[in-house]
Amino acid sequence: MDVGSAKSVLPYYLASKGYKVTSVDVEDSSYRKKMGEKFGVKSIDLDIREFYPDFEEKFDFITNSSVIEHIDNDTQAMLNLARYLKVGGIMAISTDFYTKYIEYPNANKIIVNDGRPNERYCKSRSYTKDVFFERIVNPLKEIGVNLVGETNYKNVDISKKENRCVKGLYTFGISIFRKNYAISKL
User: How many helices (H) and strands (E) does the chain have?
Assistant: First the structure.
């Protein structure tokens, strides 16, 4: 399952390598359906803040690339995704980290200073390592989905042009989680 696929190429790349892929998002449904038909990717309009029992323990691997920082109820969304994993399944997520925690929906508007009009800023949050553990890692651990390996939480001073990445945005880290046992019905 690729979460928040929008116009990402990841689900179609994975499908081209022989994987059975389901793309879920609340946006870009016509694009995802068209690309899904071309590459054999199942495209579903789905809001991960809500739990869908049909997906419980259905997926071996879930990707979630730069999505959770754009969701108002990030903790519940991640708990729902954890329930969609099979036992032993892996979830790979990336998200934004910054020198301070900025709550949804203000991070993009506060941090990015590239001259765009206010209506062009997306809603997002930025995490610190401590807040990421509080909101994501610890709630997942409580239900048997553990962080595996290291996450890069290093923050950079983006006031220096040479430290900027995509359009002056902040750094992101990639975290890998493994589901260790079946989650009892919540």
Answer: 6, 7
- Say how far apart CA 123 and CA 172 lie, in whole Å: 16
H-helix or E-strand containing 111?
Answer: helix 107-111
* pLDDT above 70 as % of the chain: 87
- Name 45's bridge partners: 25
Paired tokens of 45 = 């309009």
Query: Are 131 and 103 spatial neighbours (Cβ–Cβ below 8 Å)?
Result: no
> Phi and psi for 168 in degrees, rounded to 5?
80, 10
Q: What is the DSSP letter of 168?
A: G
End-to-end CA distance of the chain: 22
**Residues 140/175, Cβ–Cβ less than 8 Å:** no
Cα separation of 74 and 135, whole Å?
Answer: 7
Q: Which of 14, 34, 11 is nearest to 24 (CA)?
A: 11
Q: How far is CA 87 from the centre of its chain?
A: 20
What is the tens place of the pLDDT at every residue in 88-106? Answer: 999 999 998 888 899 999 8
Contact status, residue 92 vs residue 174, Cβ threshold 8 Å: yes
Domains and CATH numbers, the chain: 1-46 (no CATH), 51-179 (3.40.50.150)
Q: What is the pTM of this model?
A: 0.87
30: number of Cβ within 10 Å: 8
For position 87, what pLDDT does the model report? Answer: 96
